[in-house]
Amino acid sequence: MTRHHPDGLSLMEYSAGNLSEPHALCIRLHLDKCSHCRSRVDTLDSLGAVMMEQQPKVSVSETVFDDILARIDDLPSVQQPAEKAAPKVSILQKLLGEDINKLPWKRQLGDVSVLDITEKFPGQKEQVVLQKLVAGGKAPAHTHRGTETTIVLQGAFADQKGVFNQWDFVVLTEEDEHKPVAVGCEDCITLSVLSAPVKLTGTFTRLLNPFIR
């Protein structure tokens, strides 16, 4: 069961079609496995349709969207039954062309391998990368020069914020510094959308920052 979800504002932007293609993909991948968030998006979709139909007749208060977000974020979490993996696999294979474990990974640093797939999203400003952390491995300590949106595709990782399992969703900013560790018996693979490169903060690894794009 997923425990880390997109916030209400992100779901509203997704429902309205205002997100970039890479960010929308991350949320779509999460929604395919999280019926709680799907229900929230369905509510937003229905509300948006009603507002569009009644727009000439109804005046909308300045606080209506804040009120909606508050209600959406207050919806209780629900226990989810095990869900089928087929829809998720087909989406990834359509994007990547093959199984994620068979991709031409490039060793980046220590236990981390990456594959930049930004070219699959022409016209987008963000960098889109797949990252693989070997089972039991540690990623270098780092922070972010911008925003990083991540969906866990396989395995799990842990940092100071907790454990992030398959299909969990996380957004990190310049205020977050972490050192992910892959937990469990399989490699942890994530899909990340970055508005700017990460910034290594380790005593020695920070010397590599000029070479990171």
From TrEMBL:
<dbReference type="InterPro" id="IPR041916">
    <property type="entry name" value="Anti_sigma_zinc_sf"/>
</dbReference>
<dbReference type="InterPro" id="IPR025979">
    <property type="entry name" value="ChrR-like_cupin_dom"/>
</dbReference>
<feature type="domain" description="ChrR-like cupin">
    <location>
        <begin position="99"/>
        <end position="191"/>
    </location>
</feature>
<protein>
    <submittedName>
        <fullName>ChrR family anti-sigma-E factor</fullName>
    </submittedName>
</protein>
<dbReference type="InterPro" id="IPR012807">
    <property type="entry name" value="Anti-sigma_ChrR"/>
</dbReference>
<dbReference type="Pfam" id="PF12973">
    <property type="entry name" value="Cupin_7"/>
</dbReference>
<dbReference type="InterPro" id="IPR011051">
    <property type="entry name" value="RmlC_Cupin_sf"/>
</dbReference>
<dbReference type="InterPro" id="IPR014710">
    <property type="entry name" value="RmlC-like_jellyroll"/>
</dbReference>
